[in-house]
Amino acid sequence: MTSEQIAGLLKFVAGGGGLLAIHNGISLAGSYELLQVIGAKFITHPPYQQLRFYRTLNEHPLLHGVEDFTIDEEPYQFEFDPYTPRTVFLEYEHAGKRWPSAWEQSYGLGKVVYLHPGHRADSFRPEAIKRLILNSARWITKLEGE
Fold first, then answer.
1. Rounded distance, CA 90 to CA 57, Å?
2. Is the full-model pTM beyond 0.85?
3. Burial zone of 62 (CB within 10 Å; 0-12 exposed, 13-18 middle, 19+ buried)
4. Which residue, of 9, 50, 54, 65, has the fewest CB within 10 Å?
């Protein structure tokens, strides 16, 4: 992204806008300015495989109607920005360990959601993913009660 595009996105979100980044949308965190907006950067991923995803919270607007699920996906691994507070609401299991898969955070007056699943078209077929996207769009646009 150009400096002007980065500044525009920062101004939009900080001023109360919403940002939903899905799967490789994490690549926005390639700039240090946008690392704080997204909250983490992509490090690596083992091979594409079947992964089990788990809710990490009992109650959160982003998890309304979402149950734990299993899909084939890349097990993305992240390095979190230590200065950006966030709420991880979804994790996946890989190699006997749970890894963060989705989180939300504030940036200025705005809201940001990152959802890791989304490598292939099949990733979007499960009802849980559809609900996560819908809930996220409502949450970042402050329409969560609709």
1. 8
2. yes
3. buried
4. 50
Encoded tokens for 72: 């084939």
**Tens digits of per-residue pLDDT, 105-138?**
999 999 999 999 999 999 999 999 999 999 999 9
**Does residue 30 surpass a pLDDT of 90?**
no
Q: Measured in whole angstroms, how far is the alpha carbon of residue 21 from the centre of its chain?
A: 6
Mean pLDDT for all residues in the chain: 94
Separation of alpha carbons 9 and 90, rounded Å: 25
Could you give phi then psi for residue 90, rounded to 5 degrees? -145, 140
Angle at 140 between CA 136 and CA 145, to 5 degrees: 75
